[in-house]
Amino acid sequence: MRAPLSIVISGVLAGCAATPHADTTAPLSRVYDVDAQTMVSIVYDATRAQNYRVAVVDPEHGRARFVMMPRAGGAPLVVHLAAYGARRDRFETCVGACATTIAVTAVGGEDDRARMLLDAISVRAGQARLDP
What we know:
CATH class: Alpha Beta
Helix content: 25-40%
Structural class: alpha+beta
CATH architecture: 2-Layer Sandwich
Radius of gyration: 21 Å
């Protein structure tokens, strides 16, 4: 009886290992024609408006990571900000890092909350765009 049970268990384990798992922590991201310094204040304003508070700020050169905690409790959102230079296909009115990529990851795979925060950031970034 031991041999058949071990074969069944190893078959089940092999089947689980071979099953592709959905990536529920893939970030939602957008690119904005707004410099990174301006985008930091936009991210702060948007998170406050969406009832989040900034729990962790992890700055690097040209990049930053923010962990946003909902004021009502629950899983956090992680916001990654990355600055980069002007795109080659257009004329920019600034010098240096003119654009910013924002990526929002919902811890626990709650993409609706991440999408709502990214939409709130987009509204504010649209008002601060460098080009009309």
